[in-house]
Amino acid sequence: MKVTFLGHSCFLVEADGKSVVIDPFLSGNPEATVKPEELKVDAVLITHGHADHTLDAVSIAKNNNCPIVTTYELALHLAKQGAAIHPMGIGGAFNFPWGRVKFTPAWHSTGIETENGFIYGGVAAGLLVTMGGKTLYHAGDTALFSDMKLIAETSAIDVACLPIGDNFTMGIEDAVIAASWLKPSVTIPMHFNTFPLIAVDSSVWAEQMERKGLAAQVLSPGQSLDTSTVTA
């Protein structure tokens, strides 16, 4: 599995000639190094309905003639914009031709902002994505919650993507605790420094991870991690 950080909470995940993009927020992110129209993917995966996770989902799905895989209410909303969808629910899993997706809980809001105000966006979620015999856990936007221990008990996680930006999600200290519970082979931070309210020093997080004996990899937008180089 190859995991490429595209900025904010967006990742490109590739294995066996297949690829998916998670939470595409590219055209609105000045730090992004890839344009939405440049992506070639087999599916678009979304954790929740906020614009900094969905902004380019419909255009990418249409360009690639592929489905958006997300929670039920959000999927129906995006279908009204002309996207093909595969709706799912928390705790549910599905085997796609390119891999397996299971939706996990996340503690976060998920209202969808429209010109007429917010509409109901279902629930926020995390994702377990298995491709090429490896499993990536994308926590989505979330607080620290103890059921992460249950996620670790039921899934062997190779790569965990955890928010560290604080204010809207867990911050550095809670993300270190989450990593200690999840026990991934390596953890990548996300959802930080895109906006002033979530500006943190990722090196502080990396240092705290190292002190706990936890493998950490801070990626800049455009940088990749190959799981074949990661040792448990």
From TrEMBL:
Keyword Hydrolase: yes
SMART domains assigned to the protein according to its UniProt record, in alphabetical order: Lactamase_B
Residue runs in coiled coils: none
Task performed by this protein: Counteracts the endogenous Pycsar antiviral defense system. Phosphodiesterase that enables metal-dependent hydrolysis of host cyclic nucleotide Pycsar defense signals such as cCMP and cUMP.
GO molecular function: hydrolase activity
Organism whose genome encodes this protein: Paenibacillus curdlanolyticus YK9
Protein name: UPF0173 metal-dependent hydrolase PaecuDRAFT_1985
Record-linked HAMAP family: UPF0173
Pfam families per the UniProt record, alphabetical: Lactamase_B_3
Recorded catalytic activity of this chain's protein: 3',5'-cyclic CMP + H2O = CMP + H(+); 3',5'-cyclic UMP + H2O = UMP + H(+)
Domain Metallo-beta-lactamase residue range list: 7-191
Lineage: Bacteria, Bacillati, Bacillota, Bacilli, Bacillales
Listed InterPro entries: Metallo-B-lactamas, RibonucZ/Hydroxyglut_hydro, UPF0173, UPF0173_UPF0282_UlaG_hydrolase
Protein family per UniProt: Belongs to the UPF0173 family.
This protein's UniProt keywords: Hydrolase
Keyword Cytoplasm in record: no
Domain of life: Bacteria
